[in-house]
Every structure is written in structure tokens, then in C-alpha cells.
């Protein structure tokens, strides 16, 4: 009977602290990642360097089996800035760069692919032309 009472007492205590142990590092990493991003941006650094610093910190702190995607890290930073609006009021203007306009981004990707295809075609044409023109034994 006494062993059964101990289990009844220990189980709720463990059930309360296990989620804290699992999810606290994620929350802390997102919060400090937002602090890194916002401080660097406010200091005059460019978006890319600030983002890479914050993202690498969030990835390093989270650990675990699954890696944090860039989209998840950006979401954590945005969530922290919105939740702690008083603390990060200077950072709101930088948040749009974490989730850029998707239509514009897709169009830029398409243009880049077209440009690469055109370059490849042009290289092939130049290669064929050089073989035909500079063949020693062609008359």
C-alpha cells in the first residue's frame, strides 16, 4: 500500500516537470534568437548576417533528433517579438524580411532559372560553333 501511495504522488510531479524540461529550451532559444536578431539589426547589420547568427544559435540550442527549419526559427523570432512587444518595439520594422513576399520570391526564382537555362544554351551554341570553325581538317 505504501509503495502505491508513493507512485500516486510521484507520477503527477513527473508529469508536470517533463513537459517543462522538453519545451523550455525551445522557448529560451527562440527568445534569445530574437534578441540576437533584433540587436544586430538595430546595430546596423544587414539582414542576412543577423538572420544567420540568430538561426545558428536557435539550431544549436534546440538540439534533439529533429533539426529546426529556417521557417520554424523565423516563426519563433516573430512570435517572441510579438509576445514581448514592449521589449522588442524597435524590432517590429525588421520582421517583414523574415517572411518575404512569397509571390515576389517565386518570380525571382523563376527568372533565375530562366537565366541559367539561357546561359547553358548559349554555352552549348558557343561550343558547337568553336568545334565547327576551328576544326583543322574541315574544308
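Sequence proposed for the structure above (139 residues):
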Amino acid at each position: 500500500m505504501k509503495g502505491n501511495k508513493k507512485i500516486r504522488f510521484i507520477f503527477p510531479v513527473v508529469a508536470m516537470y517533463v513537459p517543462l524540461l522538453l519545451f523550455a529550451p525551445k522557448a529560451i532559444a527562440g527568445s534569445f534568437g530574437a534578441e540576437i536578431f533584433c540587436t544586430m539589426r538595430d546595430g546596423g547589420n544587414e539582414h542576412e548576417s543577423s538572420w544567420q547568427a540568430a538561426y545558428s544559435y536557435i539550431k544549436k540550442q534546440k538540439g534533439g533528433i529533429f533539426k529546426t527549419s529556417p521557417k520554424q526559427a523565423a516563426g519563433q523570432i516573430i512570435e517572441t517579438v510579438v509576445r514581448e512587444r514592449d521589449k522588442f518595439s524597435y524590432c517590429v520594422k525588421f520582421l517583414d524580411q523574415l517572411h518575404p513576399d512569397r509571390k515576389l520570391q517565386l518570380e525571382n526564382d523563376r527568372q533565375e532559372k530562366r537565366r541559367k537555362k539561357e546561359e547553358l544554351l548559349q554555352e552549348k551554341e558557343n561550343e558547337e560553333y568553336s568545334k565547327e570553325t576551328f576544326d583543322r581538317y574541315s574544308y
